[in-house]
Input
Amino acid sequence: MVKKKVLFVSDTFYPRVDGIVRFMEETYKHLKNDFDIKFLVPRLDGGEGMISSRKLNVIYTPTFKFTIAEFKPGRPKSKTINDAVDWADVVFVNTPGGPLGASAVYSASGKKKLIGYAHTIDWELFPFAIGRKSVGRILKPLFRRIYSKIDIILAPDKSIVAKYKKAGIKSNFKIVPLNADQTRFKENLFDRLRVRKDLGITGKFVVGFHGRLSKEKNIRLLVDSFKQFKKNHPKSSLLILGDGPERDKLKGEGIISTGFVSDPEKYLRAMDVYVLLSKTETSALSLMEAIATGVPVITSDAGLIPTYVTSRRGIILKKSQLKKGYVAKAIEIVHNSPVKSKLKAVGAKLFTDSRNWNDIANDLKRTFED
Output
């Protein structure tokens, strides 16, 4: 039986390991035996070794020389994109709003089955990335035209579909919720003790975060909130995994910045509370990974987070509460109520575990096969 050919398109790829890349990792892992999969991605410095070790079939495009929030956008080359699209039966675009993703959408439109995933609300995210909120109004009509060319847009929740429809995007939608890989992100006491010993944080209360260190993640607020908490709790540390333009904000006593790590699950197990204060989100896969690992969470109410984190499953802060006093107080609550916080973490894990990755993969498989 000849396998159907699926082209994954993304403007972000290794060595960056953000939510989109992790989603493509999981999707590829579950579907590689059923489909012939290639990736169309920008050639980013430092990524080729990671790609080679994973034995991925990759078509590269060059990048622009300029950067946006420390990110070099892919530079579309018509022949490369058209040849890749011609090869495919299905074109699966994970960044329709990026230069490479948009070019693939226009190349495939009307010729190939065109599927996209609503990982982000581009007209919200891009202004945050460049620090100019007014740009969103200008870009929304452009994104509307691009997304409306996609045959099926997969979205993690009906509220995201509602946002896309409100923006005037005329496509078919299908709900495909996300979750962390439960086989990888789970509790492990041995890892917890070993990582805490290796980092010199044995006996300390550890506040943590992992993901892309960008403006929309509110890294400065996390650091300021931790510093306020630490005044009353000197035996505490802030452990941050990941890299990005905001990494230079990670300065101060008790702050540990690891940069990118290939095994974040081990470090998550060392944390006593996970804090995500994003200004804008969709699913927040990094938060789901922390929940799957059994860590109590404090989070903003951005995007879909309130659909799986409630006051019964963690501490959720409204936009008006994203201030260091509120955040430091929330960390204090977890510190002073370890049993209650752990019970909430168990409740959050039980709720999100209902979203099994095998079911997610089967949804994707059916969509690609349609």
Summary: The mean pLDDT is 93.
